[in-house]
Design brief:
By secondary structure, this protein is an alpha+beta fold. 16% of the residues lie in helices and 39% in strands. The strands form 4 sheets. Strands 3, 4, 5, 8, 9, 11, 12 and 15 form an 8-stranded mixed sheet that branches.
Length: 228
């Protein structure tokens, strides 16, 4: 079972063993932004969902805090998102990058979500501490062709996405609002013309009220060609 560890603003640490990992999809509050993301995926051959928002169960071991993601080919990419982490000591909010196999996605979104990890930040905030100003928190993603992600590809705020409390209600309805559950939020639209098939990724959330930032960053390494 994967164990994640998070540093909180007061310097304390919380750990959680991941029992359930879920990826939300098409989860924007504004239909216009949802349709923009669906259009982005359609350009890659991914059919639109039957309903929105969507929710995909993912293998729990794919919740990772890593600096390198290994992939099988060049058409994979990340997505800037937030993540809810339910612990024995309350709910945490951190940043995440849902790395997705775009070749596999055209055959099934749920399959593609299980092909690469969800990379989570190593720092987190208590949800109770930021709930009253969630919409002000910014969410950004950068990509790069080298080891440094230096080109902005996603630039939005948590106001664009369904709230953590919305998803906590869904988890309660499904009997999953319990320690060990991690939920990834779904993403925001990417900037047109920026190549998402990058070597490096960085995602970041910034709280303008406290000035605090949480981020996750990694490089993508392509594995050797298979034999046979």
């Amino acid at each position: 079972m994967t164990t994640l560890s998070f540093e909180l603003p007061d310097g304390s640490t919380r750990t959680v063993q991941v029992k359930h990992l879920l990826n939300a999809g098409y989860a924007g509050r504004e239909q216009e932004e949802v349709q923009a993301h669906i259009a982005e995926l359609a350009e890659l051959g991914v059919p639109g969902p039957a309903t929105t928002p969507a929710l995909y169960p993912v293998s729990p071991y794919l919740a990772q805090q890593v600096s390198e993601v290994r992939v099988q080919h060049a058409r994979t990419s990340g997505e800037a998102e937030w993540a809810l982490v339910i612990t024995d000591d309350g709910v945490l909010l951190t940043v995440a990058c849902d790395h997705t196999d775009r070749e596999l996605e055209v055959h099934g979104v749920a399959w593609s979500k299980n092909a690469s990890p969800d990379v989570l930040g190593r720092k987190a905030w208590r949800l109770d501490d930021v709930r009253d100003h969630l919409d002000q928190i910014t969410l950004k993603g950068w990509v790069g062709q080298g080891d440094t992600a230096d080109t902005l590809i996603q630039d939005s705020s948590l106001e664009a996405l369904l709230t953590p409390d919305y998803w906590l209600e869904v988890l309660t309805e499904r009997g999953l609002n319990e320690p060990g559950t991690v939920l990834i939020s779904g993403t925001v639209a990417m900037t047109s013309g920026v190549n998402q098939f990058a070597r490096s990724w960085k995602v970041e959330m910034t709280d303008p009220v406290t000035g605090s930032t949480v981020d996750a960053r990694y490089v993508v390494e392509q594995m050797a060609e298979p034999i046979g």
